[in-house]
Amino acid sequence: MIYRRRDCGDHFHCRMRFRGRKGYVRKSLDTLDKDESIREGEKLFDELSYKISKGLSVLGKKFSNVCDDYLEQIETQIEIENKKPKNKQVRLKKENSLEKKLKDQSLICERYLKPYFGKKDLNKISNSDITKYREWRNSYWITGKGSKIKYIEYERGDKKVKIIPRRKVPTSSTINNEETVLRKIFQHGHSRNYISQSEIPTIKSGRVKSNQRPHFTLEEYRTLIRKSWSRCKNSPEKKSKRQRLLLHNFILIMTNTGLRPVEGMTLRWRDIGYHISPTSKKKHIVLSVRGKNKKRDLIGQPSVNTYVKRMKERQQEYSKENGFKFKGKDEYVFSNEHGQPIKSFKKGFDSLLRDCDLEHDNHGGKRCIYSLRHTYGTFRLVYGNVDVFFLSENMGTSVEMIKKHYSHLKITQVSDHLTRVIKN
User: Fold this and answer.
1) Residue 246 and residue 181: Cα distance in Å, rounded?
2) N or C: at which end does the chain have fewer Cβ atoms within 10 angstroms?
3) Is 137 in a helix, a strand, or coil?
4) Closest CA to 356 of 212, 213, 214, 216
5) pLDDT tens digit string along 153-168?
6) How many domains does the chain have?
7) What number of CA atoms fall less than 13 Å from residue 154's CA on the CB side?
8) How much is the mean pLDDT over the chain?
9) Which domain holds residue 11?
10) DSSP state of 119
11) What's 293's domain CATH number?
């Protein structure tokens, strides 16, 4: 039946009933022309008849409902994993992975996807809507809704942290991660028969630009270390000197181990051990680190042994001087004169970079603490001729990521490696 509704601006609507299905399906035809409404009504009837024959839903399912259903499915997976009689370590690893997935994807859904697509029917979202969403997302923190948000609050461990959001266009990698979640929601809707495969819009990931983090050349690194030590010796205050000495050792350890910042900040004395090589009989320092929900052992450069011994002796002196008990194994390696763990070296490191005039590399890239890890990787490839596979294992990353982030190395830097001749 096709009829006009006076309360909807005289637009034509239709009412349909299908064999074997209870109740009516009512839809707006969005036209004032009678002949056009008949054509659109017949077309809609054919489309819905086809959906019913394929077992698909003919009543539009709201995107927000499908999104919530998708997140509930992940929660169910977590509950199932909790009840599986697995090895405790394997089960916890699986649970942590799923919980992180739920946390990250819930944030994407609540902040971006649901506010934009939430009220739309899943099967009514078109390629054009995806394009418009990307425009909306790119301007979100600059001129959009996010520009009015003063602070973002989130939990880090047991603490609530408040930060000022970055007012910038998201990177290609960020957009791709978010659109991966969007694709999963559509596929979830397809698995629930809310939408046919042909109705899913095209969501093609963009090309991710290489994010090669700035490192230090050998001469720049020597300048950094010399300046750091000079600042330690010439510091006018005792407190400032202690902070700079701690930063100095932090730089030396990070550059000679390839630690991620989070791995360095959570390193405890019990995580430091030693391994004697069965072939060379050399004693190597081994660090057991945690970061990015993973654990691994890594081998540090021989000089790291000197740096950690120096720090341990200094912490023992501080414990006597300030009257706190140095527990040894349970203490954080990077802690202050009162035995409290350091939360960040960013401020001191940025100040040191300014004093050295090394804030940016020759391509304009801004250096940060992560540049120390990048320097380790560069030095091992250039001056150590380390195999890419072994380096990836020690740094806790993939061979592909090593190739991606270190593809900038100048051909002259590896000239000896390229021209070497192995004699029989």
Assistant:
1) 42
2) C
3) helix
4) 216
5) 877 666 787 888 888 8
6) 3
7) 9
8) 86
9) 2-53
10) T
11) 1.10.443.10
